[in-house]
Amino acid sequence: MIRKILIILFGLFLCLGNTHLQAQEEEKEPKWEFNGYTKYLQNTNFINLDGATLGLNLFHNRSNLNFVPNSKFNIAVEARTRLFYGEQLKLDTTFANQIDQYNGLLDLSVRWLDRRSLFIHTIVDRAYLDYHTEKWELRVGRQRINWGINTFWNPNDWFNTLNFLDFDYEERPGSDGIRFQYFTGTLSSVDVAVSFDTTIVGAVKYVFNTKGYDIQLQGGYYRGDIATGLGWAGNLWNAGFKGEASYFVPIEDLSPDSVNAFQLSLAGDYSFGSGLYLNGGVLYNSNGDTQNPADGGLGGNSLASSALSPKNLFPAPWTYSASVSYPTSALSNLSFAFTYSPKGQIAGFSSGDLTLVIPTFTYSIRDNWDLDVVGQVFLASANEKYSHLFSSAFLRLKWSY
Amino acid sequence: MKLKSTLILFFSLLLVLPSQAQDAASILKTSEEKRRGVSSSVAEMSMTIVRPKWTRSMNMKSWSKGDDYALILITGPAAKDKGTATLKRKKEVWNWLPRIERTVKLPPSMMSQSWMGSDLSNDDLVREVSLVEDYDSKVMSEETIDGRKCWKIELIPHDDAAIVWAKVIMYIDQKDYLQMKTEFIDEDDELVNVFLASEIKTMGGRPMASKMELIPLEDEGHKTILEYKSIKFDVPMNDNFFSVQNMKRIK
Fold it and tell me: How far is B227 from chain A (nearest CA, A)?
């Protein structure tokens, strides 16, 4: 079934290509664009420092196809294919089901092979038609609607909120929906977007620029809630100053998540001439101390999952973040990110301080080859005693094309 | 009669010092205007980073209008950078990251940071600073660079200008007002970077250096080369061209 849809989609591409080839000969030549990457990721998980490690290996391909029949129109289809093997796959019987989750209208995913030692999965996470003029843009289909501003937490990213721990999927899943943007000026626009997943998200965003600040106002319906949001990106002297806040009030009882929620994320960043870059911020989560760790709290790996709610961005009322990044050479970069949450709600712990340390080293081997080493260390403290909760180490080789 | 001439000579001598400052500013203004094509330019260029053990290139297209507006698009060759665009409007700068479909506003301090790992800063590329408005300048002497007679001009940045240098010495060719050589001097009076222009050709209907090198003196074997493949001047461009939506769409 899915294979058929894929074939139909690509067929549609070809058909449109031909008609436009005939109809718009005087315009710019129709163009096909193809790019993407293939990555190899080795992930080692340390659950107990005295116990065995849990490994997962992953080959990951992303292929982006964009057909541009003329300067106003384009169709994009992007697919993500992953091949998993390793102990984690063998031990976790729910692994394949966790990977093969998509709440969109159409199930555009294929399990090519689903065995205990090998799992191969493809998902089309973008498939849209885009028509744009100088003044407006209409995009219909599976697409990424990114309304976030900050690096760590994005209360305003109502469509597939960014999860900074899920670093291997920065493109994020797409939303099945319609988005209309009207450009009221060079730095101002009105954005109307609706996505139809298992529940609906529909919102309007108005962006404008004043006194060196980009400001966005949002309002709409978020999965049973009335939602409002405010965001800005500007500067205080030479440092960047950005913020996002969203407030959700349930009007329908659609999920256990149907509670009032307020999320505020503030961040400042500064860059020195040497390339040393500092970013500091804070996240407030009104539900950070009331949630039940069993279903909403932090449970090791689940924190890094692709599905994150903008109503509950991190399992603690207050979380402070700091990151420092330095280009160790023109080809390499070293960074450390820290988050600290007093009263973090952690599965298996009642409540304690939660600290995350994320060292990242990136190295550009050649034009299209990158090597990254990433660590994610989760530390918890209860009764003034720090203990290791969970860690992951990642080695990633990436070839872009 | 004689007295009159003497007086004129005397007054003109009096005028020499202030007018020299004015002269330097007008030389710089003429030079900047000539370099940028007075109103606007559209260019295709490549940047090559040279290090003792490796060399890396990047191709880009740029659109600029006056000092205030610029748009730069990376066209390759590295696939992961392709489509990344930078927009500058007056003092504000945005990046478009196509992979994550996000516009990122850069902090003003980011402007002096190395651009894409090169010896150039964002400042150098989008020219946040204006030679005339952000510096005090004066003509020091005359020198010949690459067979061209040049004015040697000293530039001291204003205290409020976001410029990392204590002093800049610029050699501007007297025939075509080309910036043949620029020396960047830090607060310790050390010469840190040298900017060299060469391969002067007629491009876009005017003489210009098609190759420019930035050489950091502290690091041996390091340099960044900027080469123009094509350039058009005075292309009619509306200020609206430099918009966030166009940054995402430009090809």
Answer: 19
Domains and CATH numbers, chain B: 21-249 (2.50.20.10)
| Domains in chain A, CATH or no CATH each | 204-401 (2.40.160.100)
Please give the torsion angle defined by the CA atoms of residues B177, B180, B186 and B190, in that order, rounded to the nearest 10 degrees.
-140
> Which residue reads 């074997």 in tokens?
B221
ipTM of the predicted assembly exceeds 0.95: no
Do residues B234 and B38 make contact, with C-beta atoms less than 8 angstroms apart? yes
Write the single-letter amino acid at A154.
N
Q: Name every residue in B having a CB less than 8 A away from some CB of A.
A: 49, 51, 54, 56, 77-80, 82, 89, 91-92, 99-102, 105-110, 112-114, 117-118, 121, 162, 164, 239-240, 242-245, 249
Contact across the interface for A240 and B121, Cβ inside 8 Å: no
Does B162 sit within 8 Å of A239, measured CB to CB? Answer: no
Q: pTM of this prediction?
A: 0.80
Long-range pairs for A283-286: beta carbons < 8 A, 24 or more residues apart: A283/A152, A283/A153, A283/A313, A283/A314, A283/A318, A283/A319, A283/A321, A284/A317, A284/A318, A285/A261, A285/A312, A285/A313, A285/A314, A285/A315, A285/A316, A285/A317, A285/A318, A285/A319, A286/A260, A286/A261, A286/A262, A286/A317
> Mind listing the pLDDT tens digit of every residue in chain A (401 residues)?
344 443 343 343 333 333 333 333 335 688 999 999 999 999 999 988 888 889 999 999 999 999 999 889 999 999 999 999 999 888 888 888 888 887 788 889 999 999 889 999 999 999 999 999 989 999 999 999 999 999 889 999 999 887 888 889 889 889 999 999 999 999 999 999 999 988 899 999 999 999 999 999 999 999 889 999 999 999 998 899 999 999 999 998 877 678 889 999 999 999 887 788 999 999 999 988 765 444 444 433 345 555 678 888 888 889 999 999 998 887 899 999 999 988 887 665 556 788 999 999 999 998 899 999 999 998 888 777 788 888 999 999 999 99
Mutation for testing the A interface, residue in B46, B84, B105 having most A CBs under 10 Å: B105
